[in-house]
Amino acid sequence: MFVTNEDKFEYRFGDSGPKYLMKGPRANFALVAFQPGQDFDAHHHNVMEENFYILEGKIDIVVDGKVNVLEPGDFIHIEPGEVHYVNNPYDKPVKMVSVLAPHTDPDKFIDPKPVY
């Protein structure tokens, strides 16, 4: 068991990206932020499944070409092998929770950015 606080961690890109509160040994848990106009590479995982739960804002998560417009309270589950692209084309910041399991590092493979 351990207890931590998000204030002890930083977002990967300063004001955006994932902020991992836990990486392994069985799962990754992160808060993720996107400012208006920001996106994250399209990618897939061969082993890990990824889940997002939206806390604030509105975000597009494109999975295998299907656009999912998500808002607070929405949850999306992404299976291993499904290509996903996260984009905030809206005028407000987004904050969401990300859980990846089982923890496998490395298990991120970049794919072409979808056009939608």
From TrEMBL:
InterPro entries: Cupin_2 (IPR013096), Flavonoid_dioxygenase-like (IPR052538), RmlC-like_jellyroll (IPR014710), RmlC_Cupin_sf (IPR011051). Residues 31-99 form the Cupin type-2 domain. Pfam families: Cupin_2. PANTHER family: LIGAND BINDING DOMAIN PROTEIN, PUTATIVE (AFU_ORTHOLOGUE AFUA_6G14370)-RELATED, QUERCETIN 2,3-DIOXYGENASE-RELATED. This is Cupin domain-containing protein. It comes from Tractidigestivibacter montrealensis.
